[in-house]
Write a structure and sequence with these properties.
Number of helices: 18
Order of helices and strands: EEHHEEHEEEHHHHHHHHHHHHHHH
CATH class of the largest domain: Mainly Alpha
Structural class: alpha+beta
CATH architecture of the largest domain: Alpha Horseshoe
Strand order of the largest sheet: 1-2-4-3
Mean pLDDT: 77
Distance between the termini: 93 Å
Number of domains: 3
Strand content: 5-15%
Shape: flat
Low-confidence stretches: 148-187, 203-211
Length: 420
Amino acid sequence: MPRIIAKVEGKGNGIKTVIVNMVDVGKALARPAEYPTKFFGCELGAQTQMDKKNNRYIVNGSHNGHKLQGILDSFIEKFVLCENCDNPETQFIVQPKKEKITSVCAACGHSSLIDMRHRLATYILKNPPDGDSCTPQKVKKLKKEKGEQENGDTSPNDESGFDGWSDEVDVKNGNGHTNEETDDNWSADTSEEAVQKRMAGLGEGVKGLTFNNDLEKSVEERFNIFFKFVKNKINEGVDNLPDKEILAEAERLDIKDRGVLVLAELLFNEDILNQIPKHRKLFLRFLNDNQKAQKNFLGAFELTVGMAYPATLIPKAAHILKSFYDSDLVEEEIIIEWGAKVSKKYVSKDISEKIHAKAKPFIDWLKNADEESEDSEEDEIEVVYTTRTEEAVLREEAMKNNKTNGADEEDDDDLDIDDI
């Protein structure tokens, strides 16, 4: 799923936020673009404007993309993911007369009722998805074809909110039979092969949502998953690693701040000074405006320099830190803070002291440069204010110069040739 691109237009009371790529976001989530737009309006207490013909989706007021992205995550949790398996392969069964909306998962077959207390649920009842969900008419048709009686009796599945299969009747089950041939196998095939086949048709963003159960694993297990993922990308032999894909995997596993430890281990060796500019773009995705990640990155620096290649890289510690600084990978204050204290968090205290000793010239240079910049800012030019005219000031300066020249001439007259 692409990240939301928000564009603020207008001023004053007419200010509004246009969500430029709302259609693409809706397609990735398999939901009409109006639903998340309306959800934004409900959560922000703002009016919304939706022009399907021109693909313009607007929320009144000024809202940045980061804020809208957080609200979108809430929409995905409430109206997209299956509550049983956290899979996004869900479809709506909208029944206005019964005032209920059922979400049916194509992966695990689970069905659940949408919370009708949310204002968006009312909007969905009045504006059901076109072609992507079962309407009440399709439900009735399905029941007739199955020979069910339309006498108002509640079927066993009504307790869970399921009144029929979404889309068309001839959805095939795992044995290749259609639902018309058997009433027992109404759920989708959940075999590994079938799931992988369905996954092939999903967008990259939605694919990531289906693996959220990895978050239930320990940090060590998630690190191993990320390690294998990056290593496979390296083994593919591509010139440029897919930095966006690697970042998305780290975010999915919730280890973005510490993912640089894995990247440094796999991408850095004795030739680190040449590797830093080569992989700068990838590291920037993790380190930019992220001080926690930068501190972990300096820990990875200690591991690489002090543990993996101590004989070769410890003497180059200052040069490596300068390369980090010049490449904008680590902020100045983070480097100075690191240099102020020897830590044994990543390596032994003895090794850490050796690294700090070699890095000291660069740390001192950073501190001095910082102090000089502060001193230069404090220096001020003295400005003298006067009410006199420019002509009067020039006349006074000329008189002073004449007096000085006269005094010099008198001094010349007092000189004795014998004294020279």
